[in-house]
């Protein structure tokens, strides 16, 4: 796992390659709330906040935030990361039936399908801009538009290919990002929910992805490889009424003509700016 200086270099590369609008967020769950004192830059909320509000403060204010269960506006946020038990009137679907589900029974189906980190192990959470940390996070949250997200996925699939599967419980994007990544140990991409847009200020063009931290080096390394092959952000539009092959590399021309494919994987340009 990278040290502090290496995290900074890695994140700066990602910011340059993807032109991210906000800071990637490092999330660390703590087994003892006294551990918060070890993070000297961590600010405790001075009012009750939602989890997505805290994340927004980190990714846009450039602050570090530490919190215990009592700092959250209501127990659902704290329950997602295992700090409190879910209340019974949430478990049985009553709460979800207030707005999001037609009946209490539908609400219970929703709650039963919602993954949450088990209660008991963790007592606090610290969230910080990834670029500054000197510790190993449990996961990293990246916010970006769909073009940036598909490039992250392309980079992950460049080697050790696998087809990714993503989830959506509806109103609860923190669940689909944080809890899903915690259990699966795989990238978890989702759509910010109504609450995260209203209180966490997620924008109309933003998606969120949670990543195991050890995958960040793979993302950065393979974004560079894709850049060499002409794949980068922003993705330049070529035109809807022109011959698409004129904007494609040589191997695509061979494929279109039914000829033997040669030249795929050959770099189209050199990368010097981000090479170590």
Number of strands: 7
Rg over CA atoms, rounded to whole Å, is 21 Å
Largest sheet: 7 strands, mixed
Decide which structural class fits the backbone: alpha+beta
The ordered string of helix (H) and strand (E) elements is: HEEHEHHHHEEHHEHEHH
List key phrases describing it.
11 helices; 7 strands; 36% helix; alpha+beta; seven-stranded mixed sheet; 276 residues
Task: Provide a quick synopsis of the model.
The chain is 36% helix and 12% strand. The protein is α+β, with helices and mostly antiparallel strands and 276 residues long.
Overall description:
The protein has helices spanning about 5-20, 50-60, 75-80, 90, 95, 105-110, 145-155, 175-185, 195-200, 215-230, 250-255; strands at about 25-30, 40-45, 65-70, 125-130, 140-145, 190, 205-210. The model has no long low-confidence stretch (mean pLDDT about 90). α2 (about 50-60) links the parallel β2 and β3 (about 65-70). With about 280 residues, the chain is of the alpha+beta class. A seven-stranded mixed sheet has the order 2-3-4-1-5-7-6. It has a domain at about 5-85 and about 120-230. It is globular. The protein has eleven helices and seven strands.
Secondary structure layout plus pairing:
Layout: H1 4-18, E1 25-30, E2 42-43, H2 51-61, E3 64-68, H3 75-80, H4 88-91, H5 94-97, H6 104-112, E4 124-129, E5 139-144, H7 146-157, H8 173-184, E6 188-190, H9 194-198, E7 207-211, H10 216-228, H11 250-257
Parallel strand pairs: 2-3
Antiparallel strand pairs: 1-4, 1-5, 3-4, 5-7, 6-7
Helix pairs in contact: 1-10, 7-10
